[in-house]
From TrEMBL:
It is found in: Cell membrane. The keyword RNA-binding does not apply. The keyword GTP-binding does not apply. This is UPF0344 protein G4Z05_08010. It is a multi-pass membrane protein. It holds the Pfam family DUF1516. One of its GO terms (cellular component) is plasma membrane.
Amino acid sequence: MIHGHVTAWALALILFVIALFLQKGGKDKGAKIVKMILRVVYLLIIGTGLGLIFMVSQIDVWYILKMVVGLWIIGLFEIILGKSAANRKTNILWIQFVVAWILVLYLGFHKLPMSIMYPQ
């Protein structure tokens, strides 16, 4: 389940970058298709994340924080794509995105007991 979650996140990041490049290149139809696929991947991310939560015997604050930050990142994906399509400034959103991405990776790989890198 962990590998499915990480794969879904990696796929979402790749699709996000592709959608941005398509938008910047003026290929609106292609960008729209990629954004729709990206939204399906969001469902996979949320589904695998919930599956991981249900596998944990005791949920602590770190799991809740990771869920909130993960949803924040998904929201930032959508907001950045929307504002980029409208040619509006996204500098603050990119800063938030980097901070949130670092935080979610730290929580996922180093802080949570189900992590593949958690010191046993």
